[in-house]
C-alpha cells in the first residue's frame, strides 16, 4: 500500500518522475534536464527498451523517433491489412497500463499525418522540445502545487500517480478532464493587448464569456425556456476533420471556412466537401434551427476565379461538381445558408458572410495552392465596404487585424477599419478563423463604450492536433434578443 503518512499536499518540486528513454545521448541528456524528472533510464535500441520494461516500472516512456528508426517502433501488424501498430507501445501498455507514452520528434510535430500516426499507435503526446515535454508531463499527470507524486514502490502508488488515466468505468469523464486542461492551455495564447488606429479601441479577453463545457451530447435542439436569447455554436478551420468534433446542442450553427485541407494538387477536395455536407445533413441540420457556413482559402473548388491553370480541366470539373452538390443540398435543407458576400436572417438577426481572404502573393510574395478567395488590398476594400450597416452577425474567414493577431498575412486591417470604425452600427457577433494560433474569445469596444462586438476565433486545427480523438472545442455564445 502507499505510505499513509505522506503529506496531503506538496510543492511541485516534489514531483520526480522515472523515465525510460529510447533516444540518443543528447536527447536523453535534454530529457534529464526537465525539472520533473528524477531518474532517466537511457537505452539505445528497441530490444533494450523491451528488456527494461520487463524488469522495471516507470512513470513514462519517451521515444525519440529521429534517433531510433521509425520502422522499429511502428510496424505493420499484418501484410494483408496493412494496419500499423507499435509493438513497443503495446508491450508498455500491457506491462504498465498507467505508464504514459510520449514521442519526441520534430517531424511528427510538424506533420499532421505523422502526428496522427503516433497517436494512433498509442502515444499519449507528441513533443519536439524540452519545454513541450515538461508541459506534457504537467498536463498528463495533472501536476499542481497541491499534489505530490508518490513513489513507484507499489501498484497502489502507481494508481495514485496517474488518476486521470482512462479506465473502463470512467474513460469518458477522465478523457474530458484531461482534454479540458490542454484546451485551456491553448486558449491562454489569446493575450490581452491594445492597438491604435484612427480611434482608440480596447481589445481584451472577455472574462464574462466563458466557453461552456458540455458533458452530454444531446441529439435534440437546445431548449429555450424563453425567447430572450439564441444559442450560437461556432467552429472554423476544421480541415476535413469535422467528424472528430463533438457538437453541443444549440439554435444556430456557424462555420467560418476552411472546410477542406488542400495539402497537394492531388487532394480530392470535392470529396472532402461532399463528406462535410453529408455530416451537416446527418449530424447538424436535425439539431439546429439555423445552419450558416462560408468558404475559406482552402475551399478553392468554390472559387471559380482561382482554378489552377496546371490542372484547369480537372479543377473546372471539380468546381462544377461542387456547385451542383451544393445547390442540391441547399434545395433540400431550408434551414441552411451558404453565404458568399451575401445575407440571410434568423429570428430578426441579419447575418452576413464573406469568404474574402488576404492575398498572400501580395503581402508575402508567396503563392499557395490554397489561395481560394484571396484578393488584393484594393479588391478587399471594395468588398468590405459592402458589409451591411445593419449586420448583427458577421462571418468572415480572416480575422480583423489587432484582435489576437498583428500579422498582416493572417489578419486584415481593412476589415478592422470597416467593421469597427467609429460611428457605424457594430455587430453583436463577429466570427472568423484562419489564424490557427489564436483560438478564443475577445471583445471590441467602441470609443465611448456604448456598444461592443464579441469576436470568436473558432479554429479547431490546433485543438485537434492536441487530441485527434475529440480535442475540438466549439465556441458557445448566448446572444440576447432585445
From TrEMBL:
<protein>
    <submittedName>
        <fullName>Metallophosphoesterase domain-containing protein 1</fullName>
    </submittedName>
</protein>
<feature type="domain" description="Calcineurin-like phosphoesterase">
    <location>
        <begin position="230"/>
        <end position="436"/>
    </location>
</feature>
<dbReference type="Pfam" id="PF00149">
    <property type="entry name" value="Metallophos"/>
</dbReference>
<dbReference type="InterPro" id="IPR004843">
    <property type="entry name" value="Calcineurin-like_PHP"/>
</dbReference>
<dbReference type="InterPro" id="IPR051693">
    <property type="entry name" value="UPF0046_metallophosphoest"/>
</dbReference>
<dbReference type="InterPro" id="IPR029052">
    <property type="entry name" value="Metallo-depent_PP-like"/>
</dbReference>
<dbReference type="GO" id="GO:0016787">
    <property type="term" value="F:hydrolase activity"/>
</dbReference>
Amino acid at each position: 500500500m502507499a505510505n499513509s503518512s505522506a503529506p496531503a499536499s506538496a510543492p511541485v518540486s516534489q514531483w520526480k518522475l522515472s523515465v525510460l528513454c529510447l533516444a540518443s545521448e543528447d536527447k536523453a541528456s535534454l530529457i534529464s534536464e526537465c525539472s520533473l524528472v528524477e531518474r532517466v533510464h537511457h537505452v539505445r535500441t528497441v530490444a533494450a527498451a523491451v528488456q527494461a520494461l520487463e524488469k522495471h516500472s516507470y512513470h513514462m516512456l519517451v521515444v525519440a523517433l529521429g534517433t531510433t528508426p521509425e520502422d522499429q517502433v511502428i510496424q505493420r501488424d499484418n501484410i494483408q491489412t496493412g494496419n500499423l501498430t507499435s509493438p513497443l507501445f503495446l508491450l508498455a501498455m500491457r506491462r504498465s497500463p498507467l505508464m504514459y507514452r510520449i514521442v519526441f520528434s520534430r517531424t511528427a510535430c510538424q506533420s499532421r499525418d505523422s502526428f496522427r500516426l503516433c497517436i494512433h499507435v498509442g502515444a499519449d503526446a507528441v513533443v519536439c522540445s524540452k519545454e513541450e515535454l515538461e508541459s506534457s508531463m504537467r498536463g498528463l499527470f495533472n501536476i499542481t502545487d497541491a499534489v505530490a507524486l508518490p513513489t513507484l514502490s507499489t501498484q497502489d502508488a502507481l494508481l495514485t500517480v496517474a488518476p486521470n488515466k482512462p479506465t473502463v468505468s470512467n474513460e469518458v469523464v477522465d478523457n474530458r478532464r484531461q482534454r479540458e486542461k490542454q484546451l485551456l492551455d491553448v486558449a491562454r495564447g489569446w493575450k490581452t493587448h491594445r492597438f491604435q488606429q484612427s480611434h482608440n479601441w480596447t481589445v481584451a479577453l472577455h472574462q464574462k464569456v466563458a466557453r461552456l463545457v458540455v458533458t452530454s451530447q444531446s441529439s435534440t435542439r437546445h431548449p429555450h425556456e424563453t425567447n430572450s436569447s439564441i444559442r450560437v455554436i461556432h467552429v472554423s478551420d476544421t480541415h476535413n476533420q469535422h467528424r472528430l468534433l463533438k457538437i453541443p446542442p444549440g439554435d444556430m450553427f456557424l462555420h467560418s471556412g476552411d472546410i477542406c485541407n488542400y495539402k497537394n494538387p492531388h487532394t480530392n477536395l470535392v470529396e472532402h466537401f461532399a463528406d462535410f455536407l453529408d455530416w451537416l445533413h446527418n449530424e447538424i441540420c436535425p439539431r439546429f434551427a439555423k445552419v450558416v457556413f462560408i468558404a475559406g482559402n482552402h475551399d478553392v473548388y468554390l472559387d471559380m476565379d482561382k482554378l489552377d491553370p496546371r490542372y484547369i480541366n480537372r479543377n473546372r470539373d471539380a468546381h462544377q461538381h461542387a456547385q451542383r452538390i451544393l445547390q442540391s443540398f441547399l434545395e433540400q435543407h431550408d434551414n441552411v445558408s451558404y453565404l458568399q458576400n451575401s445575407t440571410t436572417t434568423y429570428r430578426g438577426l441579419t447575418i452576413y458572410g464573406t469568404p474574402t481572404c488576404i492575398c498572400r502573393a501580395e503581402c508575402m510574395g508567396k503563392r499557395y495552392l490554397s489561395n481560394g478567395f484571396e484578393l488584393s488590398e484594393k479588391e478587399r476594400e471594395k468588398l468590405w465596404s459592402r458589409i451591411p450597416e445593419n449586420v448583427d452577425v458577421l462571418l468572415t474567414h480572416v480575422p480583423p487585424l489587432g484582435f489576437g493577431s498583428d500579422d498582416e498575412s493572417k489578419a486584415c486591417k481593412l476589415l478592422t477599419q470597416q467593421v469597427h470604425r467609429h460611428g457605424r452600427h457594430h455587430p453583436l457577433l463577429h466570427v472568423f478563423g484562419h489564424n490557427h494560433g489564436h483560438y478564443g474569445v475577445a471583445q471590441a469596444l467602441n470609443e465611448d463604450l456604448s456598444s461592443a462586438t464579441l469576436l470568436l476565433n473558432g479554429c479547431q486545427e490546433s485543438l485537434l492536433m492536441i487530441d485527434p480523438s475529440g480535442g475540438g472545442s466549439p465556441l458557445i455564445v448566448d446572444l440576447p434578443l432585445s
